[in-house]
Amino acid sequence: MKNRFTIFFLLAAPLLLPSAARAQNNWTLEKSTLTYHVSHPLHEVAGVSHAARGKGVCRSGKCDFLVAAPVKSFDSGDSNRDLHMLQVVRGADFPMIIVRFSLPESELDAPSIHCNLQIQFAGQTVEYKQVAFQQTIQGKDHHITGTIPATVSDFKIDPPKLLMVPIKNEIPVDVDMTWTPDATGAAGGKSSH
Amino acid sequence: MSAQTNAAGFYTESNLAPGEYQITVAAAGFDTKSENLTVTVGASQTLDVTLQAALTLEDLGISPQQTQANPQEQARLNKRSHMLQVHQRLGLITTVPLAATVISGFFAGGKRGVTSSSSRDLHAALGSATVGLYAATAYYAIFAPKIPGAKTEGPIRFHKALAWIHGPGMILTPILGAMAFNQRSQGEKVHGIAKLHGQVAIITAVAYGLAILSVSVHSGAAARKAHAFFGLFHSGNSDSADAAIDGALAKAGTE
After folding, report:
1. What is the four-CA torsion angle of A70, A74, A80, A84, rounded to 10 degrees?
2. Which of A115, A36, A42 is nearest to A82 (CA)?
C-alpha cells in the first residue's frame, strides 16, 4: 500500500540556489507562433501570437521548460473579437499564459516527443498528459510543432455567444516553436527577440 | 499526511506504519520532487531531498508589472462586453419592426385615393417603434467603455463605418416621413424633400442590414465574396486569419 506523505520546504530554499546556478545546458525559445482556433456556426476564428518567450534548463538528465505569452498578444484580425476574448478569459486579471513541461534530456533529439503540459490560463491550472509534438532539427535549431487539445470547459471559461449560439468547447492551440541551445550555459539569462 | 521543515530544512516524522511511502517535497519557487521510501519496523531512516530552483517569468525577461492583475481594466472589459451584448440583442430585435416598417411603407405611399390613412398610421407606428429601439441599440454601443490602447481592425471597422449611413438615416427618415404624412393627411400629393422619405428609408435599412451581417458572418463563400467586394475591413495584421482570407479571396476571384 502506498501512502502519500508531503513535506514543505520553506527557509531552506536560499541554500539551494548555488546548485541552480550551475545548470549544464540551457535552451532559449528563438521564435514561436501560437494559434488558437475557435469554432462557431457563423465564424471560424484563429488568433495568433508571436510574443511567447521560453527557456529550458537541463539538470541531471532532466530538462524543465517554461513558456509564457501575454494574453493580449493574440490577434485574430478583429479587434472587437480580441477585446471580447480578453474579457471572457479574464485577461486583465491573468495577463499571461504560462506553460511548464519537462522532458528527459535523452529525448531532446527525438523526432516525436510526448510530454505532460501544465498550463496556467484564465486563472486555472490544467494539465494535459502526453501531448504529441513533432520535431525537426536543422543545425542547432530544434523546430517543434503540435497541437494542444485545450477546451473552454477545462479553464472554466464561460463560452462566448454570437446570436445566442455559443462557440464549440474545443479550442485547439497549434504550437510552432524553434528552440536553440544556449551557448553560454548560464541559467537565468534574458531571452533576445 | 503533511509536515513542514524547520528553518534549516530538517524534518522528522515518527511512529509511521511500515509500508511503501511516496514523499513529495514542495517549496515556493522550486520544482516539486517525489521520492519513494520503504518504512520498516523498528528502523530509523533518513531521506534527504534536494530541490532545484524552478524557472520563473523573470528568467524569461518578463517583469512583475507585466504579470500584475489589473482589476479596474477587467471591470471595464466586463462592462464593455455586457453593454455590447445588449447592443447586439437590441440590434437584432430592431430588425423586426424595421422590416415591418419597410414592408408597410409600400402600402402607405403617396398614391392619392389608393392608400388608406390606416396604412399610413400603421407605417408611422412601426417607424416610431423602430426609431425607439434603434436609439436604445445605439446607446449601448456609443456608451460602452472604450479600452485605452485598443486598435480598431477587422469587420468592426466596416460595422462602425456603416453607422455613419444608418445613423443619420434613422434621424432623417422619420423627419421626412412626418413631412410626407402631414402632406398626405392634408390631401396633398407628397412633394418636395418629403419625396425622398422612401429612398432614404431603403438606404438606411440596407446599411443597417449590412452592419449586422458584417459582424455576424465571417466564414463561408458568401462572406468571402462580401469581403472581396467591400475590402474595407481587411487589416492585413493577423497572420493566420487574414492569410486564410487572402487565400480564400484569391480563390473566390477564380470561381
Report:
1. -60
2. A36
Helix (H, G, I), strand (E, B) or coil at B154: coil
Strands A2-8 and B2-4, by their bridges, are parallel
ipTM value greater than 0.90: no
Q: Do B24 and A5 touch (CB under 8 A)?
A: yes
| B25 interfacial to chain A (CB closer than 8 Å) | yes
Tell which CATH classification among 3.40.50.11780, 2.40.128.110, 3.50.50.60, 3.40.50.410 matches the domain A24-182.
2.40.128.110
Does A47 contact B at CB distance below 8 Å?
yes
User: CB contact, 8 Å: B121 with chain A?
Assistant: no
Which pLDDT band holds residue B42 (cuts at 50, 70, 90)?
confident
pTM above 0.80, yes or no: no
What confidence tens digit (pLDDT) does each residue in B56-97 have? Answer: 999 999 999 999 999 999 999 999 999 999 999 999 999 999
CA distance A192 to A178: 13
Q: Which three cell numbers stand for residue B109?
A: 405611399
